[in-house]
Amino acid sequence: QFLNPNVNTRTDAYGGSVERRAAFAIAIATKIANAIGKERVGIRFSPYNTFNDMQPYPDAEVHQTYVWLAQELDRIGIAYIHVAVSPQLPAKTRDAVRAAFTGTIIQCNGLTPETAEAALNGGFADLVAFGKSFLANPDLDKRIAGQQALNQPDLSTFYSPGAKGYIDYPALA
Fold it and tell me: What distance in Å separates the CA atoms of residue 78 and residue 36, rounded to the nearest whole number?
């Protein structure tokens, strides 16, 4: 939210330009790296995230924001960037983030075993992550290894109280 110019409308040192909107993330990453070691620090990028009614902003500014942030985080030397790759994220932005950051990049966001394999072979991601698929498949590793069908996540149960949608998905027999 701090990076999105439609949400971050501050007029102080943390608002305005890409560099100023990213200053808070850089300051936090730096302080944590100094406190616990840069090899233990990672950050999540969610370009094109519209959660909580965040409005998208121009592709050129998204590109500039995340490439600049990747360069600065590489300068700090953090261990990884975890990127929620959406269909809107242009290949040129992915490529530029990859070129700017020499640490590990973890790709996530709606991956299947097949698309995860393609992501690993595509040159951007070093690792892949499964969020919703892992939630719906407590035995995801076994399902992938055995090429078994995956349970589909029930999005209506996300962020709701109780066990439904969290611990009630069937596992393989």
Answer: 11
- The model's pTM is 0.90
Angle between helices 59-76 and 18-36 (to 10 degrees): 30
Say how far apart CA 66 and CA 152 lie, in whole Å. 31
DSSP string for 76-107:
HT-SEEEEE--TTS-HHHHHHHHHH--SEEEE
Question: How many beta carbons lie within 10 A of that of residue 169, not counting itself?
Answer: 17
Distance CA 4, CA 18 (A): 9
Q: At 127, is the secondary structure helix, strand, or coil? A: strand
pLDDT reading at 79 higher than 80: yes
113-162 pLDDT per residue, tens: 999 999 999 999 999 999 999 999 999 999 999 999 999 999 899 888 88
Q: Is 49 exposed, middle or buried (0-12, 13-18, 19+ CB in 10 A)?
A: middle
Please check whether residue 133 is in contact with residue 153, taking contact to mean a CB–CB distance below 8 angstroms. Answer: yes
Are 67 and 97 contacting, i.e. CB atoms less than 8 angstroms apart? yes
